[in-house]
Amino acid sequence: MIELSRQTKETQILVRLELYGSGQSSINTGVGFLDHMLEALAKHSHMNLEITCKGDTHIDDHHSVEDVAIVLGQAFAKAVYPVKSIERYGNAIVVMDEASVSCDLDVSNRPYLIFEMPMEGKIGTFDVELVEEFFRAFTFNAHLTLHLICHRGRNRHHMAEASFKALAVALRRGLTVNENGGIPSTKGVL
C-alpha cells in the first residue's frame, strides 16, 4: 500500500493506493463527478484506492481535480517504478451506449499524452475541460505514455466515463505480472 499526501493553499489531499487489489474504493474529493470517475477507475483496474481531498471548490473544481491527479500519479509511479516483470503495454476500447473511447498506454517512465476527445460544456456542474486536465496531470506524474481517443460519442458523461474505464482496463492489462519478462525493455531499464 502506497500512501502519499499533499498540502497547498488550495488543496489538502491524501491518497492510498494498492496496485494489485480487488477494485475497492473510498473516494471523497468534494467533486461528485470526479468521485464517480475515480470509483470506476478503481473498480475496472482492480486497484484499491482511497482518496480524500479538501479543496477550494467554492472557487471552482480545477485545483481539486488537478491536484488529486498529481498525487494519484505520484502514488502510481512510486508503486510501479522501477518496472520489472510486467507486460508494460496495455490497451482497451470501452463503449458506453453511443460513446467509444480507446486507451493505449506504455508504462514507460516517459510521460506523454495524446488526448483526442471533443468535450465542451458541463456534466452537471462539472466543467468537462477538467477531464483533460486530470489525464494530463495523472499521466505526467505517473510517468506513462497515454493515448486516449474518442472514436464516437455525443453524451459528455458517457465519453468521460468511457475514458476513465478505458484507462482502468488498459492499466490492468499493462500491469499484468509476467514472471518471464524481467525488465520489459531492450535498454534493460525503464
How would you explain this protein's 3D organization?
There is one protein chain. This protein has one domain: Imidazole glycerol phosphate dehydratase, domain 1 (Ribosomal Protein S5, domain 2, 2-Layer Sandwich), CATH 3.30.230. The strands form three sheets. Strands 1-2-4-3 form a four-stranded mixed beta sheet, with helices on one face. The chain has a four-stranded mixed beta sheet with strand order 5-6-10-7, covered by helices on one side. A two-stranded antiparallel sheet has the order 8-9. The protein is globular, with a radius of gyration of 16 Å. It is built from four helices and ten strands. It has helices at residues 32-45, 62-80, 129-142, 156-174; strands at 2-7, 11-18, 25-28, 48-55, 89-96, 99-106, 112-116, 122-123, 126-127, 145-152. Helix 1 (32-45) runs parallel beside helix 4 (156-174) and helix 2 packs parallel to helix 3. It is α+β, with helices and mostly antiparallel strands and 190 residues long. Helix 1 (32-45) links the parallel strand 3 (25-28) and strand 4. The mean pLDDT is 96. 35% of the residues lie in helices and 31% in strands.
